[in-house]
Structures are given as C-alpha cells and as structure tokens.
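Data availability (excerpt). The following record was deposited with the supplementary files.
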Amino acid sequence: MASPLPLVCRSTEPLRIAAVSRRRPVSRFPVAMLMRGLAVIAALGVPLAAATLADLAHPVPPASAR
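Predicted structure:
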C-alpha cells in the first residue's frame, strides 16, 4: 500500500478563523419537525379515539347463545 502524501501549506500567511460579529438567526427547522411529529401523532390517534367513542355510543350486542 502506498504511503499518503504529506500535507503541505504553501501559504505564507497563517490561517485565521473569522470572528462572527453578527448572531445568526435561529433556525426554525427543529420547531417545524416537532410540530410535524405532533401532527402525525394526533392524526394517528383520531381514528382510535373515534372508534372508541363509537363503541361506547353503540355497544355490540352480546352474541346469541345457541
């Protein structure tokens, strides 16, 4: 296996990390994901709640004994 080439910096000026003078706006992506997740959970719970209420309103008559 060939040995990797060494990393060489040919710039005469040292590298500098630019300081951020302004605050970046807060990303709304996590909030949107949370709201979408809650909407999915609520949408999945609606049919279950409807079926439960329907069973309470109209209970199934007991099976007739033979």
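Summary of structural features: The chain has a mean pLDDT of 78.
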